[in-house]
Amino acid sequence: MKSPLGYTLRRDIADPLLAGHFAPDFLELAPENWIGLGGIWKRKLDQLNEQFRFTAHGLSLSIGSPEPVNIEGLKVIKQFLDDYNIDIYSEHLAFSSIDNAHMYESMPIPFTIESLNHIAEKVRVAQEVLERSLVLENVCYYILPESDMSELQYIKELQQISKCGLLLDVSNVYVNAKNHGYCSQTFFRDFPFEHVHYVHVGSYDTNQPSVIFDSHDRAIDKNTLYDLLKIKDEIPSNVPICLERESNFEPLDELVNEFKGVRKLL
Questions:
Q1: What pLDDT, on the 0 to 100 scale, is given for residue 78?
Q2: Per-block average pLDDT, block size 10, for the chain (266 residues)?
Q3: Which of 91, 216, 225, 246 could form a disulfide with 61 if both were Cys (CB 3.0 to 4.6 A apart)?
Q4: Which residue ranges make up each domain of the chain?
């Protein structure tokens, strides 16, 4: 069974999707962008859900922040997931808020025993509320806090303790490898692929001379596709793969052709 190939849902492409100009196997949405909407956008979301399976990639859980899990906020997300029959709910292995200040960015956590135990407990609570696995994504980091272990060691330990699922973001691995001077294939060599529930492939900005930035605003780089092809046989065959795109949706034909090209590669 081959992996389903999906695409990020943004309002910019809702009408082409409804019109049948673009046919991914599923759509990934951020619940925070759709919860509580009424009117025309609620109707369009319902229509899209009739045509496409949804997955969810959250923005506000902030699993790595010092505060406990926001139970009431998570209950709202759970209700949304239930309403749209969404099985996969992923979030960032990072923090995005602290002391009620929201940074609108995934900030890196220190890879320490203290943070590991703290986050593992938050994962346990979150999974109880959600009544489904919490799937955590490896994120880009440009400056890493002082740590006791490597990112890969941390991910493996957290999965073993918390039994969370893993979202493998292939492009984030490539960005971190280039920025911090190691080989992405070295990272993949010992990755616990058996616990991967979901895969992301996105783009990055290489315009700066000394660092590359996660961007999700352009065509996927051939290096990321190369990494994906190198590891695709390690990924369980039914795990969904999502192409991430958050801006620059014109011309639509280029997006559709890119999607078809990746599908053909896989």
A1: 98
A2: 91 96 96 96 98 96 93 97 98 80 75 97 98 97 91 98 98 95 94 98 88 91 94 94 94 95 92
A3: 91
A4: 5-265
- pLDDT for residue 100: 67
- Distance CA(216)–CA(177), nearest Å, equals 18
CATH code, 5-265: 3.20.20.150
What count of residues does the chain have? 266
**251 preceded by a cis bond (ω within 30 of 0):** yes
